[in-house]
Amino acid sequence: MAGRTLPNGRQRVLIVIQLTGGNDGLNTIIPYTNDIYYQSRPEIAISKQQALRLNDDAGLNPNLPVLRELYDEGHLSIINNVGYPEPNRSHFRSMDIWHTASQSDEYLKTGWLGRYLDKQCDDCHLPTQLIETDDILSLALKGHNHQGITFRDPRMVYTKAQEQFYKNIGETHQHEHEMADYLYKMLGETINSTNYILEKSKTNPTTAEYPATAFGNHLKHIASLIRSDINTSVYYVSLGSFDTHVRQLSRQTELFKELNSGLKVFTDDLKKANRFNDVMIMTFSEFGRRVAQNGSAGTDHGTANNMFFISGALRQKGIINELPDLSNLSNGDLTHTVDFKNIYATILDKWLDSSVPAILGKDFKTLGFI
Fold it and tell me: Which CATH number is 37's domain given?
């Protein structure tokens, strides 16, 4: 079973963009009327003249003009102050919390999207509903019984899967051990899935000219699969590292330019293919950065952050909630006002048409941007 099917016969698609390393949200959405922001960041603050104006109080980082265009078109929602109680400032632990949708003192072995796949795929023969464009599958896409497929280029995976070594393993396997059975099952599913993915990617490939970057190539593969009406309901792609302890301005500028150029071609491509209303793009990072800059023209690990949602089907547009309150910090960090699990619940319920309690363990209030 796939995700929610629309009246036009197509299914809705979620694209998760993980900004790995802890993107600095305060230099992404600029509170350019807030004196505390400029006092706290004498070297790295973005000036009001540089920021791309969104409203009287906030602007975008100047290296993200595509988001300004989408904002003006009514195709961008921004949610500020997203986090969770008792935040963890370790990259690995905080990412695990986001991947598994756990509490800060709870340790889970499955991801929220993997459990979504379990729920949707009781009778799936090809678990291609989740695809990640990377070498290693993220915990977010690992379920109890199923897991997503990961690759950087479907052609490379297909070529590898056709090697006689892998075929021989599948043909000679004897059912001797439960774990071995599971691994052989995963191998078989991967080989069959890559065959399906490669064939689908050829049916209606994009002709758009994407940036010659890793992120651009990932989006190009995803665009070809979306245009080909594959059964995938979630794509997962990462960009980073945003761990800007040193010389933040140059590093964040470089990454934002890569993000911007990829998203510009990708969103235009979706619009041209008449798929922009069927697709929801969501960005997140495992945490934000501290409000005050450090001694190396950078910022250290913080807590709450902003998230972006891009689609032609948004119900609430623009900046959805209040900007961070820089006068009410917790040990120098932003205070979260939106739990990320409420956002996951919204995506699951209103976009993917799935059960929130079955996947997140209990019901969570949904938000109104979808």
Answer: 3.40.720.10
